[in-house]
Amino acid sequence: MILAYYVHDLSPFLIRFGGGIGIRWYGLSYLAGFIVGILLYKRLAVKGYSALRPDQVVDFVTMGALFGVLLGGRLGYLLFYDAGQFFHDPLIFFRVWEGGMASHGGILGFSIYTFWYARRHHLSFRNLGDNLVVVAPIGLFFGRCANFINGELYGRITNVSWAVQFPKEMFFYDPERLERLMMKASAIDPSFNSPDAIISGVSQSLSLQTLLAGEISPRYPSQLIEAFLEGAFLFSLLWILRTRCRLPDGFLTGIFFISYALVRILGECFREPDAPLTGNLTRGQFLSLFMIFVGLLFLIWAWVRPCYPAALRKERKS
Fold it and tell me: Are residues 182 and 207 in the same domain?
């Protein structure tokens, strides 16, 4: 029996004004992550878990998101996944509308910014990091959901009943196969004469959906798997540890680095590799190994030189 898989037909735009201009879900995902992250970080600050005052949180998260996540994420993607093109054409850095952000780069960028901010304002780097990693998975969750809406970073080929067919797979077809598909699509509607036109027309034509259902490979919706692992699961784990356990500064940062690395390695098992393998490891899995090492260093640091946020010091006195 042939299963009827869902042919991905979601638009990357919430509102489109024409051409490639409009309000994109991808941009909204970053905005949602920043807003929710700020609100949760403020809550932690009010309860005494953070060295930051509640009124300092907005500036810290906003500037960290700008110089850490956006700058680090973009630069990380170009260096880790598209270095050849970046060195050939450095101005590609500014063409953010073409996509391309790396979570490893964003994490590294925000870590560097947090270290600088802590030194400048004479605050505990470990304390800032602990509260930051608690709310960071919220941004990862929204970002992965936006990846799914965009139909990018899709999964490996599978035959599970909940597989999804992503039309953007066409961009990796050989010229002959792509030409045959476009001829069939053009027979349905002459305007379906390019991969971009076909992708845009999926939601408008049932006949086109039927054609693609017989041409496109069913794949894991790896973006949603990663949204659960990197987002919902990590946030729940770290929030419980932050609010229910008495842990020294730096411990949660270590747990985040190790846990993120492990769930990323697991999630990559469902995701189509988007860069050459390093041995048997995808690029994401290989980069995650370094995060495990960094996480262990934070755990050792927290154990050797323990110090606690105000809320936990009060608990001990009482």
Answer: yes
